[in-house]
Design goal:
Blueprint: H1 3-30, H2 37-58, H3 64-78, H4 81-93, H5 97-124
Keywords: Cell membrane, Ion channel, Ion transport, Membrane, Metal-binding, Sodium, Transmembrane, Transmembrane helix, Transport
Pfam families: CRCB
Subcellular location: Cell membrane
Protein backbone atom coordinates (compact mmCIF):
# COMPACT_ATOMS: atom_id res chain seq x y z
CA UNK A 1 0.00 0.00 0.00
CA UNK A 2 1.18 3.48 -0.76
CA UNK A 3 1.15 6.29 1.77
CA UNK A 4 -1.68 7.97 -0.13
CA UNK A 5 -3.77 4.79 -0.03
CA UNK A 6 -3.27 4.55 3.74
CA UNK A 7 -4.41 8.15 4.20
CA UNK A 8 -7.42 7.58 1.91
CA UNK A 9 -8.28 4.37 3.79
CA UNK A 10 -8.27 6.25 7.11
CA UNK A 11 -10.37 9.09 5.73
CA UNK A 12 -12.81 6.63 4.14
CA UNK A 13 -13.13 4.81 7.48
CA UNK A 14 -14.10 8.07 9.14
CA UNK A 15 -16.62 8.87 6.43
CA UNK A 16 -18.10 5.36 6.75
CA UNK A 17 -18.48 5.74 10.52
CA UNK A 18 -20.17 9.12 10.07
CA UNK A 19 -22.53 7.66 7.45
CA UNK A 20 -23.42 4.84 9.86
CA UNK A 21 -24.10 7.33 12.66
CA UNK A 22 -26.36 9.51 10.49
CA UNK A 23 -28.27 6.63 8.89
CA UNK A 24 -28.83 4.83 12.19
CA UNK A 25 -30.05 8.05 13.81
CA UNK A 26 -32.39 8.74 10.90
CA UNK A 27 -33.87 5.24 11.01
CA UNK A 28 -34.31 5.41 14.80
CA UNK A 29 -36.05 8.77 14.45
CA UNK A 30 -38.49 7.41 11.86
CA UNK A 31 -39.21 3.99 13.38
CA UNK A 32 -41.25 3.27 16.46
CA UNK A 33 -40.12 -0.20 17.56
CA UNK A 34 -37.22 -1.33 19.67
CA UNK A 35 -35.92 -3.68 16.95
CA UNK A 36 -32.48 -2.46 15.76
CA UNK A 37 -33.64 -1.82 12.20
CA UNK A 38 -30.95 0.80 11.51
CA UNK A 39 -28.13 -1.63 12.24
CA UNK A 40 -29.74 -4.26 10.04
CA UNK A 41 -30.12 -1.81 7.14
CA UNK A 42 -26.53 -0.68 7.57
CA UNK A 43 -25.05 -4.18 7.69
CA UNK A 44 -27.12 -5.53 4.79
CA UNK A 45 -26.45 -2.52 2.56
CA UNK A 46 -22.77 -2.56 3.54
CA UNK A 47 -22.54 -6.26 2.67
CA UNK A 48 -24.09 -5.57 -0.73
CA UNK A 49 -21.71 -2.67 -1.39
CA UNK A 50 -18.67 -4.66 -0.27
CA UNK A 51 -19.76 -7.52 -2.54
CA UNK A 52 -20.17 -5.03 -5.39
CA UNK A 53 -16.72 -3.54 -4.81
CA UNK A 54 -15.15 -7.01 -4.70
CA UNK A 55 -16.95 -8.02 -7.89
CA UNK A 56 -15.78 -4.85 -9.62
CA UNK A 57 -12.20 -5.66 -8.63
CA UNK A 58 -12.57 -9.26 -9.81
CA UNK A 59 -13.89 -7.92 -13.12
CA UNK A 60 -10.96 -5.49 -13.35
CA UNK A 61 -13.20 -2.41 -13.17
CA UNK A 62 -11.60 -1.22 -9.91
CA UNK A 63 -8.02 -1.68 -8.71
CA UNK A 64 -7.01 -3.51 -5.55
CA UNK A 65 -6.01 -0.14 -4.04
CA UNK A 66 -9.57 1.13 -4.41
CA UNK A 67 -10.86 -2.11 -2.92
CA UNK A 68 -8.78 -1.42 0.18
CA UNK A 69 -9.92 2.20 0.42
CA UNK A 70 -13.60 1.59 -0.30
CA UNK A 71 -13.99 -1.94 1.08
CA UNK A 72 -11.74 -1.92 4.13
CA UNK A 73 -11.97 1.81 4.84
CA UNK A 74 -15.44 3.03 3.88
CA UNK A 75 -17.39 -0.20 4.41
CA UNK A 76 -15.28 -1.14 7.45
CA UNK A 77 -16.26 2.14 9.08
CA UNK A 78 -19.86 1.89 7.87
CA UNK A 79 -20.80 -1.64 8.90
CA UNK A 80 -20.88 -2.81 12.49
CA UNK A 81 -20.84 -6.48 13.45
CA UNK A 82 -20.10 -5.70 17.09
CA UNK A 83 -23.16 -3.49 17.49
CA UNK A 84 -25.36 -6.11 15.83
CA UNK A 85 -24.01 -8.74 18.22
CA UNK A 86 -24.65 -6.57 21.28
CA UNK A 87 -28.15 -5.67 20.10
CA UNK A 88 -28.90 -9.39 19.72
CA UNK A 89 -27.69 -10.00 23.29
CA UNK A 90 -29.93 -7.18 24.55
CA UNK A 91 -32.93 -8.68 22.75
CA UNK A 92 -32.15 -12.03 24.39
CA UNK A 93 -31.90 -10.33 27.81
CA UNK A 94 -35.37 -8.87 27.19
CA UNK A 95 -36.59 -12.39 26.31
CA UNK A 96 -37.54 -11.24 22.82
CA UNK A 97 -36.60 -14.58 21.29
CA UNK A 98 -38.05 -14.06 17.82
CA UNK A 99 -36.58 -10.57 17.48
CA UNK A 100 -33.19 -11.87 18.65
CA UNK A 101 -33.28 -14.70 16.11
CA UNK A 102 -34.36 -12.31 13.36
CA UNK A 103 -31.59 -9.89 14.27
CA UNK A 104 -28.80 -12.42 14.74
CA UNK A 105 -29.55 -15.18 12.26
CA UNK A 106 -31.77 -13.21 9.92
CA UNK A 107 -29.24 -10.44 9.43
CA UNK A 108 -26.50 -12.99 8.75
CA UNK A 109 -28.51 -14.77 6.06
CA UNK A 110 -29.73 -11.56 4.44
CA UNK A 111 -26.28 -9.93 4.59
CA UNK A 112 -24.62 -12.96 2.96
CA UNK A 113 -27.27 -12.96 0.22
CA UNK A 114 -26.76 -9.21 -0.27
CA UNK A 115 -22.98 -9.68 -0.52
CA UNK A 116 -23.48 -12.44 -3.10
CA UNK A 117 -25.88 -10.24 -5.08
CA UNK A 118 -23.48 -7.30 -4.99
CA UNK A 119 -20.59 -9.51 -6.06
CA UNK A 120 -22.59 -10.93 -8.96
CA UNK A 121 -23.60 -7.42 -10.05
CA UNK A 122 -19.99 -6.26 -9.85
CA UNK A 123 -18.84 -9.14 -12.04
CA UNK A 124 -21.64 -8.44 -14.51
CA UNK A 125 -20.74 -4.77 -14.81
Amino acid sequence: MTGLEIVLLCLAGGVGAALRFVLDGTVRHHSSGSFPLGTMIINVSGSFILGLITGLVAGSVLTHGWQLVLGTGLMGGYTTFSTASLETVRLLEDRRWLAAAANGLGMLVIAVAAAAGGYALGLWL
